[in-house]
């Protein structure tokens, strides 16, 4: 099932569940739906922040209570933990606030934070602020995307012939660039052999 269909059928529930499970795409789609009047924007933002925050808690507390066992079972997380620990030493507040923006480090980061000396209350406060920042940024991007889609569709509707010609020219230009780069690359390989 596509994300847009999930939003259409389940609305706020899809936004909540998607945000709980690292759902940037779902929150983005919910924001686009809000831009077009299908959902209420404040509720999309609030659900995105709240459920993103709630989705972090199991990992933090798993790190707090089962950290070494998790690291021994999942060595890939153990390698990322070292990187998180270095960042935690220097910038612990900034790390908690921005962790959900660091691709590939979110779960390992939450486990490492749980294993650190950071108090759970401090983590909860900083993580909620980080969830608000994340939800606001993703929602704003969704609004921008909704506006862009609306403008593109209006231009396509109004100037379909010109847009088709422009797209054809862009495609032809792209193909020429690709073929010319490949042609230049072939003699270099021959000379090196």
Describe this structure in words.
The chain has helices at residues 3-10, 12-20, 24-35, 41-73, 75-98, 106-115, 120-158, 160-192. The chain has 193 residues and is an all-alpha fold. The protein folds into 2 domains: 3-154, no CATH class; 162-192. Helix 4 (41-73) packs across helix 6 and helix 5 (75-98) crosses helix 7. It is globular and about 60 Å long. The protein starts with a helix and ends with a helix. The mean pLDDT is 83.
Rounded mean pLDDT is 83
Secondary structural class: mainly alpha
Summarize the biggest pleated sheet: none
Strand content: under 5%
Order of helices and strands: HHHHHHHH
Shape: globular
Helix content: over 70%
Number of DSSP strand runs: 0
Radius of gyration using CA atoms only: 23 Å
Number of helices: 8
C-alpha end-to-end distance: 50 Å
Unreliable residue stretches: none
Tell me the quaternary state. single chain
Write down the domain tally. Answer: 2
Write the SSE topology.
Blueprint: H1 3-10, H2 12-20, H3 24-35, H4 41-73, H5 75-98, H6 106-115, H7 120-158, H8 160-192
Helix pairs in contact: 1-2, 1-3, 2-3, 2-4, 3-4, 3-7, 4-5, 4-6, 4-7, 5-6, 5-7, 7-8
In summary, what is this structure?
With 193 residues, this protein is an all-alpha fold.
Give structural attributes.
193 residues; mainly alpha; 87% helix
